[in-house]
Amino acid sequence: MRAGGEGAVFWLEAGVYRMQQIEPLEGQTILGASGAVLNGSRLLTEFTEVDGHWVAEGQTQQGVRHETDESAEGAQRPGYPDAVYVNDQPLTPVDSLDQLRSGTYFFDYDADRIFLGDDPHGQTVEAAVSPFAIASGANGVTVSGLTVEKYATPTQEAAISGNGEGWVISNNEVRLNYGVGINIGGNGQILDNHVHDNGQMGLNAGGGGILIEGNEIASNGFWSGIDVLWEGGGGKFTETDGLMVRNNYSHDNNGYGLWTDIDNVNTTYEGNRIEYNSAGGINHEISYSASIHDNSFVGNGGNGLTWLWGSAIQVQNSQDVEIFNNFIDASSGGNGIGLIQQDRGEGAFGDYVTVNNSVHDNTLILTSEGGVGAVADYDEERMLAGGNSFDNNVYHVSEGGEDQFAFGDYYTFENFGAVVGQDLGSSLLIG
Q1: Which residues contact 366 (CB under 8 A, 6 or more apart)?
Q2: Can you give the residue ranges of the Right handed beta helix domain (predicted)?
């Protein structure tokens, strides 16, 4: 983009632009017509049959490998971004030829060969090559109207990566990239994008004054082989100040729907729909002041997680969080609102402790096993005396459960109020 100079506007006509890597200058704008696609892969069209397998020769790409030790259970070659797709579906990598099966591929890096487990003839086969679509440290860049897909983005890196200040990334479809779909830095905005089916995670961001609004974030975190509880799922935000996450629809991700982790302060989650994410809904972890309000949650974390893990709203070793006016439907399983304290040390603004959190005026629909409350496996006394409070909430359960309400120990709803003084102005509706 150097030919246009700083502040230039570029227009991409409809069409597929393969293996392009754009490094914007200060203030540049990149716009796409409907049907403009940045595709980080090459088409594979020539195959030979070798010992009953189909082989593409001359594959010299080898993407940067990060965090190969952060593997999901049973995954092979996690952190290897050299993805292969058949008809827009990512195949599963295996690490030896004798494990090749239908739906898998084996990349023999020594021989520069990709082996496929299925006959590719008549199919569209693509191999991810380029590590990013649009990325630079310039400030004030705008990216809008593009489809960005199939980039060999390393773990924790993004296909669109605004590493400078004030990027605006809007109205794009970002899909099928190995690592992360979109990343921004301070005073950046991610607006009205459809971010889906990326291998590790949909979004990430860090810095001050960030706005995440109006995005659909769906079905991310399923195929990179990286453990999503280490980092993956819908979106993760780190070391932010004044982060606003508003009116997004985050659903069906493998991991948390939305996640603030490490030294986030003055965070707001407002008006989001968070549905059917495997690990839980919103997780605010080892961070500080936040407001989580007027969000709706359905079906998050209902995958057999114990303790208060998998809550629709989960606060881990964080303080000064107000949780109010949320609607939580956990009738298919999972926990409601969980405050969790463990031994996590200290961060930029003090100890990572679960204190001074207020949970009020929320409506929850629970199973008889779904939990609510505060638990600790470290310095429980500090958490219990730390000003955490539950009040004026409404709980709906199909039948009366025993010991669903936690404040250190577990209690019935009646004893949650009578013994520990929580939820005194709340109600439990059975049936």
Answers
A1: 330, 331, 336, 372, 395, 396, 397, 401, 404
A2: 159-318
Q: Which residues contact 359 (CB under 8 A, 6 or more apart)?
A: 323, 324, 337, 339, 388, 389, 390, 391, 393
Q: Is the per-residue pLDDT at 207 higher than 80?
A: yes
Torsion 308-228-197-74 (CA) sign: negative
Q: What is the pLDDT of residues 115-136, one digit of tens each?
A: 999 999 999 999 999 999 999 9
Helix (H) or strand (E) holding 230: helix 228-231
- Specify burial of residue 166 (Cβ count, 10 A radius: 0-12, 13-18, 19+): buried
- Reading the block at residue 164, the tokens are 């400078």
pLDDT of 211 over the 80 cut: yes
Q: Which amino acid is at 158?
A: A
Residue 27, burial from CB neighbour count under 10 angstroms (0-12, 13-18, 19+):
middle
Q: Is 228 helix (H, G, I), strand (E, B) or coil?
A: helix
Q: What local confidence, expressed as pLDDT, does residue 1 receive?
A: 63
Contacts of 340 (CB under 8 A, 6+ apart): 307, 308, 309, 314, 315, 316, 317, 354, 374, 375, 376
Tokens of 215: 């995005």
Q: Which pTM was predicted?
A: 0.97
3-state secondary structure 229-271: HHHCEEEEEEEEECCEEECCEEECCCCEEEEEECCCECEEEEC
Q: Which residues contact 272 (CB under 8 A, 6 or more apart)?
A: 245, 246, 247, 248, 249, 250, 257, 258, 282, 295, 296
Residue 304 has pLDDT above 90, yes or no: no
**What's the length of the chain?**
431
User: What is the identity of the amino acid at 33?
Assistant: A
With H, G, I as helix, E, B as strand and everything else as coil, classify residue 99: helix
Give the separation between CA 409 and CA 406, rounded to whole angstroms: 6
Residue with tokens 């638990």: 375
Give CA 12 to chain center in angstroms.
Answer: 29
Concatenating the DSSP letter of every residue in 411-428 gives E-HHHHHHTT--STT-EE
CATH topology of domain 134-430: Pectate Lyase C-like (2.160.20)
Q: What is the pLDDT of residues 377-394, one digit of tens each?
A: 999 999 999 999 999 999
176: left (phi over 0), alpha (psi -120 to 50) or beta: left
| C-alpha 53, offset from chain centre | 36
